[in-house]
């Protein structure tokens, strides 16, 4: 599976599957791929027998809100009563409740919690993770989150790629003046860049949060400072966020649950990857799922992610999301596998090192308790990962 760029459209059905294959690893990288028979001639220090089970690249998570304080299980009752996600936010709950908990948590507490969630992701076969800030909404707390993500990348074997999502919600003190709030956040760009605290800048373009015009200006500034840009776009209301993602040359447009047909056409003709997060539709009890089938049929490149966060998708198990992608998005197993490996890696600029088993790439590999690749989305809700290898080292078995 040595793919140079994202896999688009109908090519997402063309999965490379090798039978009786073997991989040789040196210094954390894949150095050889061939048949088991030929591998018998290699003098290896250590051998792992996959026993004929499914072996794939480690899963790549291109969209998570990994670093946060507290939890919001009390919102479950509100959800059951039919209180809308954006209404909970309007009343100071939702994202803003997590903002308060994140402000209260000290650095060590946040780091421990982050490492805990990373462990859980690793156990489920994830080897690379994008992590957004966005539960600070003030300079100090946003920096605290970004520093935690940076230290987690060093302390934990998984690779953590950081995104600045200071524009995640309007804090109450800026309710009447979101523009000034965006200025406070964009004033942090230089400091974030100089300290290598984030590679990407993201914004929540949504009713009651930031408008398309505000998002455009903010992302242009981020681009001028050398950041790659991403958007939470067309998640709940159709505002034209998909079109904006294409217009600003975003590396990914994320959610796209209510993208317009025009937006989908533009996405297909662009280099922007659609990061689809069906776990949020499921978890928020919505009947509307992203038209991922139409996106792929139109020629777009799609990735899939958990959107792991404390409010709209509370799971570290990407395998479960793969099942939702099969059942609700009607994607084929091959499309789903590309969406959680090759394309997910490209959605966070890691296509050169993650998302595929190929010579010269990192040896991030999972052996699954599964007879074939179709089995994982089919047998849902459990963890199939048997052995997780990160940088050539066994992390879990
Ligand atoms: O991707 N949409 C905005 N942000 C997150 C939810 C965050 C939260 O509810 O805490 C999302 O769905
Ligand atoms: Fe998100």
TrEMBL record:
Its cofactor is Zn(2+); Fe(3+). It is found in: Cytoplasm. N-formimidoyl-L-glutamate binds at residues 135, 309, 311. Gene3D superfamilies: Metal-dependent hydrolases (3.20.20.140), Urease, subunit C, domain 1 (2.30.40.10). Keywords: Cytoplasm, Histidine metabolism, Hydrolase, Iron, Metal-binding, Zinc. Its main location: cytoplasm. 4-imidazolone-5-propanoate binds at residues 72, 135, 168, 235, 312. Binds 1 zinc or iron ion per subunit. Zn(2+) binds at residues 63, 65, 232, 307. It is an enzyme of class 3 (hydrolase). Fe(3+) binds at residues 63, 65, 232, 307. Belongs to the metallo-dependent hydrolases superfamily. HutI family. HAMAP family: HutI. This is Imidazolonepropionase. The gene is hutI.
């Amino acid at each position: 599976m040595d793919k140079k760029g994202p896999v688009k459209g109908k090519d997402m059905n063309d999965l490379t599957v090798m039978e009786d294959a073997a991989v040789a690893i040196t210094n954390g990288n894949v150095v050889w791929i061939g048949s088991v028979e030929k591998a018998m001639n290699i003098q290896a220090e250590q051998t792992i027998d996959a026993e004929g089970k499914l072996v794939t690249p480690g899963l790549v998570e291109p969209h998570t809100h990994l670093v946060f304080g507290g939890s919001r299980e009390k919102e479950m009752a509100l959800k059951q009563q039919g209180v809308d996600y954006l209404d909970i936010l309007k009343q100071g709950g939702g994202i803003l409740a997590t903002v308060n908990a994140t402000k209260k948590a000290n650095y060590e507490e946040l780091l421990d919690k982050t490492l805990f969630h990373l462990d859980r992701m690793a156990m489920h076969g994830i080897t690379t993770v994008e992590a957004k800030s966005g539960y600070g909404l003030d300079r100090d707390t946003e920096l605290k989150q970004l520093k935690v993500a940076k230290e987690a990348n060093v302390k934990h074997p998984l690779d953590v790629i950081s995104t600045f999502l200071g524009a995640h919600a309007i804090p109450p003190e800026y309710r009447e003046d979101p523009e000034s709030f965006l200025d406070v956040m964009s004033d942090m760009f230089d400091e974030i860049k100089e300290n290598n605290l984030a590679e990407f800048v993201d914004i929540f373009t949504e009713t009651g949060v930031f408008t398309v015009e505000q998002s455009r200006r903010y992302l242009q500034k981020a681009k001028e400072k050398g950041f790659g840009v991403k958007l939470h776009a067309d998640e709940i209301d159709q505002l034209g966020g998909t079109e904006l993602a294409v217009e600003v040359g975003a590396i990914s447009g994320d959610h796209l649950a209510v993208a317009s047909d025009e937006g989908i056409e533009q996405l297909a003709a662009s280099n922007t990857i659609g990061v689809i997060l069906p776990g949020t539709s499921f978890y928020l009890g919505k009947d509307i799922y992203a038209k991922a089938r139409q996106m792929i049929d139109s020629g777009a490149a799609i990735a899939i992610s958990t959107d792991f966060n404390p409010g709209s998708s509370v799971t570290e198990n990407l395998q479960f999301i793969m099942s939702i992608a099969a059942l609700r998005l009607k994607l084929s197993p091959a499309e789903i596998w590309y969406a959680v490996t090759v394309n997910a890696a490209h959605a966070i600029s890691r296509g050169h090192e993650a998302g595929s088993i190929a010579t010269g790439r990192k040896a991030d590999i999972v052996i699954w308790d599964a007879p074939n690749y179709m089995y994982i989305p089919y047998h849902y809700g459990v963890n199939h990962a048997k052995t997780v290898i990160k940088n050539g080292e066994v992390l879990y078995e």
